[in-house]
Design a protein that fits this description.
The protein is α+β, with helices and mostly antiparallel strands. The chain has helices at about 80-90, 100-120; strands spanning about 1-5, 10, 15-25, 25-35, 40-45, 50-55, 60-65, 120-130, 135-140, 140-145. Strands 1, 2, 3, 4, 5, 6, 7, 8, 9 and 10 form a ten-stranded antiparallel β-sheet that branches.
């Protein structure tokens, strides 16, 4: 099974695990295991920003979703949620920085939101029940069955 145009919640991964992470040259590959033991690879390309916090042995998935398109709210997150997630990936200038840096940052976030809105970019969000909290900004996300991974 291969799903190259992922958008929305990835059902079947609640209480599954994030087992592996490989990152190189603008790509990222995540090894995922569902509760039923079925294994998958989530392949991201065009990765511009990635944040993984609290990676541990036994990273249990609460929710995994891919946000893109003009109706991303149908997938769950509010515009404020999406903006807050982008702020995790693209860090705000120091509070004492000149206003030009803050204006440039606001413009950057607006461009990223527009890329998401048109579907030219995707925001991958893994909310953990335990362990790794993952967010990524990329151009494509593909879920591939990986029975022997």
């Amino acid at each position: 099974m291969s799903s190259p145009n992922l958008i929305g919640p990835l059902t079947g991964f609640h209480d599954g695990r994030l087992e592996s992470v490989a990152v190189a040259d603008g790509t990222a590959v995540f090894g995922l295991v569902r509760v039923d033991g079925r294994r998958f690879k989530l392949n991201l390309s065009g990765v511009e920003a990635l944040s993984i916090n609290d990676f541990r042995e036994g990273n249990i998935i609460l929710e995994l979703q891919v946000v893109a398109g003009s109706d991303f709210q149908g997938a769950g997150p509010t515009p404020g949620d999406v903006r807050a997630t982008l702020e995790v990936l693209f860090l705000r200038p120091h509070a004492d920085a000149a206003s030009a840096y803050h204006e440039a940052y606001d413009n950057l976030l607006q461009r990223k939101l527009e890329l998401l809105d048109t579907g030219a970019a995707k925001l991958v969000i893994l909310d953990p029940a335990y362990g790794a909290d993952l967010v990524a900004f990329c151009t494509s996300a593909e879920l591939v069955d990986a029975p022997h991974a």
